[in-house]
Amino acid sequence: LKQEALEQIDQAQTADDLQSVRVSYLGKKGPITEVLRGMGKLPAEERPVVGELANKVRQVIAEAIDEKKAIIEEKAINEQLEKESIDVTLPARPVHVGGPHLLTRMISEIEDLFIGMGFEVREGPEVETDYYNFEALNLPKDHPARDMQDSFYITEELLMRTHTSPVQARTMNAYKGNKPVKMICPGKVYRRDTDDATHSHQFMQVEGLYVDKNVRMSDLKGVLNQFAKQFFGEEREIRLRPSFFPFTEPSVEMDISCKVCQGEGCSVCKKTGWIEILGGGMVHPRVLEMAGYDPEIYSGFAFGMGPERIAMLKYGIDDIRHFYTNDRRFLKQYHQA
Ligand code: PHE
Questions:
Q1: Where residue 145 falls among pLDDT bands split at 50, 70, 90?
Q2: Which family is this sequence assigned to (predicted)?
């Protein structure tokens, strides 16, 4: 009996096989239980001998079952580990890492340059009042120059700002006419334009304003020259051309020199060798006055530039819509490691 049981245990492959061996040999209806149950019928002197033998056989079988069980379990664990093991020698899948948008980068580079010249960075609301967007900038209602900036009105008094210049007026107002102002303001602006390669109904501007005693046109030229050389390269020259803005007098447009050439990065340079990059001028006395600054004591300059245009010039990008359609193939060319 013992031999038979041990053989079956040996052959058992799974925990289930083993369990049925246990039931058939050690169970309530098994042969050993039967022997022990039949003890009463045996002569008294044989009982201890038979009892001891039966118990011993039971013990041997039980131990053999436990041993085999351990082996089966270990095998199962090993099989599972084998299945789940990771091949650390496989090449890793590439992880796509994003980066700041090109415009975000342009703006922080522009900010860094002006912070280096002592300007602070300020922001203002994109939904602006008619007062700050136009009136405080010397564009009273019915002023024909309002047409220069076709606007998205929300109510009669509220609109999406058409430029960042209202932040000039807000900052001067906050300083209450008795403190120098030296700030730039980056942000989104909105105009009722039909989108094409060079127009967008929403784009970015960086405004600059410097108001103090004795600020002159030559200060404007010096600051912008410094900016152009640091941003585009030492070899660049600037030139100022007369222009018109209602909030500056005199007003200028600034060009930077560019190489007339063919091929990548050159297509945006005009044949003249100069390309316009921003507008600016001396803050109009009326604008100073409305903001509480005495134009007899204070003077200032202001300028506004478009980061999209600047990025297009710097990198030879031919369509402003690339900035906003979020094609990764375009964007990732300008991610920096
Ligand atoms: N606000 C002007 C524009 O949007 C730019 C500008 C700013 C001009 C400051 C002069 C001074 O066209």
A1: confident
A2: Belongs to the class-II aminoacyl-tRNA synthetase family. Phe-tRNA synthetase alpha subunit type 1 subfamily.
Question: What pLDDT is recorded for position 336?
Answer: 79
Among 241, 184, 186, smallest CA distance to 210 is for: 184
- The strand ranges marked E within 50-131 are 120-121, 127-129
Query: Distance between CA 167 and CA 147 in Å, rounded?
Result: 20
* 3-class SS of residue 300: strand
Give CA–CA dist 18/9, Å, rounded: 6
Q: How far is the CA of 74 from the centre of ligand 1 (A)?
A: 79
Q: Angle, to 10 degrees, between the axis of helix 307-315 and the axis of helix 102-116?
A: 100
Ligand 1 atom nearest residue 165's Cα: 1
Q: pTM score, two decimals? A: 0.73
Give binding residues as ranges.
249
pLDDT one-digit tens code per residue, 259-315: 766 665 555 677 788 889 999 999 999 999 999 999 999 999 999 999 999 999 888
Note whether 240 and 254 are within 8 A (CB): yes
Query: Which residues sit in the known binding site for Mg(2+)?
Result: 249
Atom 5 of ligand 1, nearest CA residue: 304
Whether residue 300 has its Cβ less than 6 Å from ligand 1: no
Q: Give helix 217-232 / helix 307-315 axis angle, nearest 10°.
A: 50
Query: Which two three-digit tokens encode residue 336?
Result: 């920096």
pLDDT of residue 262: 63
Report ipTM (2 d.p.): 0.97
For ligand 1, what atom is nearest to the CA of residue 283? 11
Span from the CA of 304 to the centroid of ligand 1 (angstroms): 5
Contacts of 33 by beta carbon, 8 Å cutoff, 6+ apart: 26, 27
Give the residue carrying structure tokens 């100073």: 288
Is residue 257 within 8 A of residue 233, CB to CB? The reply is no
